[in-house]
Specification:
145 residues; alpha/beta; 5-stranded parallel beta sheet; 7 helices; 12% strand; globular
């Protein structure tokens, strides 16, 4: 199955003390073992790095460690999707027309990348937020792990 990991799943898979670590690690291991194809966005990786390096102790990860975890588990094994400038432009215009505010634009970036990659599952612990900005036909692909 072709899967997409939201940044919160990436973070949980990398931090043993995270409340969702076990489930996120299971999903990561499916990709690393070849049972699933892993996809994420460049945005999700940057977001994961930012969060992992600023979490409160004891969850905080040192910058070098965060970079290594993302490289070894994601950059080497996942397809990384990014939006073009034109796609960002269309997304922002669509967000304005839809009346989305604040961080919904970041959720929309994840959904847009997952849609672009034609994934079968988008995993996120914020599935409801992502479904808010997804097309009706893609909403069923967004699930809580």
């Amino acid at each position: 199955m072709k899967t997409f990991f939201d940044s919160n799943v990436i973070i949980a898979s990398c931090i043993e003390e995270h409340e969702h670590h076990e489930r996120a690690l299971e999903l990561l291991e499916r990709v690393l073992g070849g049972a699933d194809t892993g996809t994420t966005s460049a945005h999700a990786l940057a977001e994961a790095y930012a969060v992992m390096t600023r979490l409160p102790k004891p969850l905080r990860v040192a910058p070098k460690t965060a970079a290594l975890l993302l490289e070894e588990n994601y950059l080497k094994h996942f397809d990384i999707v990014e939006l073009t400038g034109s796609e960002y432009g269309r997304l922002i215009i669509g967000a304005g027309q839809a009346g989305w505010v604040g961080g919904l634009i970041y959720d929309a970036i994840h959904v847009s990348c997952a849609t672009k990659a034609a994934v079968q599952r988008l995993y996120s612990w914020n599935a409801h937020h992502l479904q808010t900005v997804a097309s009706e036909e893609f909403r069923s692909h967004i699930v809580v792990p």
